[in-house]
Design a protein that fits this description.
5-stranded mixed β-sheet; elongated; 21% strand
């Protein structure tokens, strides 16, 4: 009988934000496939978990996927984890999930922390529906076209961004969308957590005065009039 691939959400910062079910799963599976084994090892050590680790990231290649699927087909259970949050969301884990489905292996979600829902919960914006776009393009021209395509979106748009591209992203959004409302979550659930609410112009001024550090999640309201 084939094993099970568990897609396990892990904390986005605060180690206390892991579920009891996730801990039990990480303890009892045969193997944990982690985006960065060094990062995941800190979580496992914190909770006294000694399950073997293997790396699985965007550069792993087809060979590693085949290896993991073969083990699943032989009856082993594997937990898939990313560095933070839920695997497969702006994360290479989706390739292993697809391969497991194609091989007829059962895939089970172990839900938990998510930067997307965390920022929406404190944004104070109507979030009965929203649009998630992950990371904006890195190149200036593509980034500008990306934001121009959002002009008619009448729901919150959630983005991820790194600190060294935050200002360029906010500027591109301002150039394309005008001074629309924005919420910027920084280091969510961590010691230096910050939630900024205002307009894009105010956000630019804030982060120009305070050099961006940490991980960022952005919520835009392109059509604030609706």
């Amino acid at each position: 009988m084939a094993g099970v691939l568990y897609v396990v959400a892990t904390p986005i910062g605060n180690l206390g934000d892991i579920t009891l079910r996730a801990l039990e799963t990480l303890k009892t599976v045969d193997l944990i496939a982690a985006e960065d084994t060094r990062h995941t090892k800190k979580l496992l050590q914190h909770y006294g978990i000694e399950t073997p680790l293997v790396s699985f990231h965007q550069h792993s290649g087809a060979g590693r996927i085949e290896q993991l699927v073969r083990r699943l087909q032989q009856g082993e259970s594997i937990a898939l984890v990313t560095d933070a949050g839920t695997p497969g969301i702006s994360d290479p884990g989706g390739a292993l999930v697809e391969a497991a489905h194609q091989a007829g292996v059962r895939v089970v979600p172990i839900p938990g922390a998510s930067a997307v829902t965390a920022v929406l919960s404190v944004a104070g914006l109507p979030a009965h529906r929203f649009r998630f776009e992950g990371f904006p393009p890195r190149k200036a021209g593509a980034r500008q076209r990306f934001f121009e395509a959002l002009r008619e979106v009448d729901a919150p748009v959630v983005l991820f961004e790194s600190p060294h591209r935050l200002l360029a992203t906010l500027q591109a959004a301002y150039d394309a969308l005008g001074d629309c409302p924005v919420v910027v979550g920084r280091e969510l659930t961590k010691h230096f957590e910050e939630v900024f609410r205002g307009t894009l112009r105010e956000a630019l001024a804030h982060w120009q005065a305070t050099p961006p550090r940490g991980e960022f999640v952005i919520v835009l309201m392109p059509r604030a009039d609706t």
